[in-house]
Design brief:
Largest sheet: 2 strands, antiparallel
Helix content: 55-70%
Shape: elongated
Mean pLDDT: 81
Structural class: mainly alpha
Number of strands: 2
Order of helices and strands: HHHEHE
Low-confidence stretches: 117-121
Strand order of the largest sheet: 1-2
Radius of gyration: 27 Å
Distance between the termini: 64 Å
Length: about 130
């Protein structure tokens, strides 16, 4: 197997990976901030960078290097955002009560107009920080 055959195969893999990523986002199957999209784009950029460099096509190599760096930054941003969201979700919990379970002095303002007979059927949700 010659080096040029390997380079050509890499070029086709990169081109197909880039098209798959573009098609999946365009059809709404992946979001632009998904790890699948970013990973596939990075694979495409790496393979096309290799092909361009092997053939001495430096403008293409430079643009694929930029695409690769953008993808790496996007992956770090996505992972950091998911960690932050998980941390914030763990800090909140949902508390459900009916108004009958609440001391009358603590009835929320938006429920104060309900007649006493109806109070036991009214529910509310409140988010409280976990202890």
């Amino acid at each position: 197997m010659s080096l040029m055959l390997v380079v050509t195969v890499l070029g086709w893999v990169g081109a197909i990976a880039g098209l798959v990523a573009y098609a999946m986002v365009s059809r709404g199957r992946w979001s632009a901030d998904s790890l699948a999209f970013q990973g596939t784009n990075m694979l495409a950029a790496m393979t096309l960078l290799s092909v361009a460099a092997a053939n001495g096509i430096w403008p293409s190599a430079a643009s694929n290097m930029a695409a690769l760096l953008i993808g790496v930054n996007a992956v770090f941003t996505v992972v950091r955002g998911k960690k932050r969201a998980a941390k914030e979700a763990a800090a909140l919990r949902v508390v459900e009560n009916t108004v009958a379970d609440v001391v009358p002095d603590h009835v929320p303002d938006h429920l104060a107009d309900h007649a006493p007979a109806q109070r036991s059927t009214v529910s509310y949700r409140a988010f409280a920080e976990a202890a």
